[in-house]
Write a structure and sequence with these properties.
About 75% of the residues lie in helices and about 0% in strands. By secondary structure, it is mainly α. It has one domain: NCX, central ion-binding region (A middle domain of Talin 1), CATH 1.20.1420.
Length: about 350
């Protein structure tokens, strides 16, 4: 059925709609979970919202890796991370009180961004290292999950007992400012069920994206690196865009940043999972120059974001932070270079 280009495109577009619909609702449910459980928006965003909105990307990458398409698998994960970071710049447009980097700066968001940068360096080291594997799996794929969960523990501890806080201004966001949703602890099972159903919808849509992405690459002659790093990556990152904008519009800024940075960190886990699914040896050594370029570009983008969170420019041109403009410029120029050199 996927040998037909029109059918592949139709299924691709339907999957986009499903991801967008489910992602919109997930932001509301996650905000309610954070309020009822008291876990904090940054932690809920990083773990639950970030992980669940990454389901479509997980299924897409694992499907591609298991069927022998390493460039599509890793390109999808890496491209999704870059796209999600740009989404913070887009969300900045929807927050009119101040620049998002100023209002949402906190020790938790800074630690999340630092964790993501550290995690991204591990696959880069694996790509440049001698070919080492244990039963076709590179040791880096075992290190990444350990580093991820250790980082989550540090973020949780920082939320419970922060050792420092950003200087408070009239535009600084605090979690108590979010609008109450009037939910009780007895509603947790219902919220949990809603969240699971939405996550399943995203996962199914992700599988469709993975299959149609492979088909589109084969039928159009576009390289898997470009299809994965740009097209399927943006589609599977749509839940993060939808939930980020929805969270910002609700005033849940820590949830928005936590969802993006947490989802991006989870996408690095996806690279490790893809190495397990890819049975032809270490996936890192079957990658090409475009994947290395995307990793380096994403680390630069993260550096810009971290500088923005530390600098905390209150207002920028058209009330959009300079960092948001730079992120968009880096993303467009980087992937344009990949597109025209493919």
């Amino acid at each position: 059925m996927l040998e037909s280009l029109p059918i592949s495109i139709t299924l691709f577009l339907l999957a986009i709609l499903a991801i967008a619909f489910a992602g919109t609702r997930m932001a509301t449910v996650a905000d309610q979970v954070a309020e009822v459980t008291g876990l904090g928006e940054a932690f809920v965003g990083a773990l639950f919202l970030g992980g669940s909105t990454s389901l479509s990307g997980i299924v897409t990458s694992l499907t591609a890796a298991a069927t022998g398409h390493p460039e599509l698998a890793v390109g999808n994960a890496l491209g999704g991370i870059a796209a999600q970071i740009v989404f913070l710049g887009i969300a900045d447009v929807f927050y009119r009180k101040a620049n998002l980097e100023h209002a949402a700066a906190s020790v938790a968001t800074l630690m999340q961004a630092t964790l993501l940068m550290t995690l991204l360096a591990i696959p880069l080291l694996a790509m440049a290292s001698p070919q080492i594997d244990i039963f076709w799996i590179h040791p880096a794929s075992l290190i990444i999950p350990i580093a991820y969960f250790f980082g989550l523990r540090l973020i949780s501890e920082a939320h419970e007992m922060p050792m420092w806080r950003p200087r408070s201004t009239d535009a600084t966001w605090v979690e108590e400012e979010t609008v109450a949703t009037q939910v009780e602890k007895s509603d947790i099972p219902v919220l949990g069920l809603q969240f699971v159903l939405l996550a399943v919808t995203v996962a199914i849509a992700g599988y469709i994206v993975g299959q149609t992405g492979i088909s589109l690459s084969a039928r159009t002659g576009v390289s898997e690196s470009l299809v994965g790093g740009l097209f399927t990556a943006i589609v599977t990152a749509l839940p993060e865009l939808v939930t980020t904008v929805a969270a910002v519009r609700r005033g849940a800024l820590a949830l928005a940043l936590g969802g993006v940075l947490g989802g991006s960190s989870f996408d690095v886990l996806v690279i490790a999972f893809s190495d397990f699914a890819y049975r032809e040896g270490s996936i890192y050594h079957d990658l090409q120059q475009p994947q290395i370029f995307i990793v380096a570009l994403t680390i630069v983008m993260l550096g810009v974001l971290l500088l923005g969170l530390l600098r905390r420019e209150k207002y920028g041109f058209a009330n959009i932070g300079l960092e948001s403009v730079l992120l968009l410029g880096l993303y467009l120029s980087g992937f344009s270079l990949l597109f025209f050199s493919a």
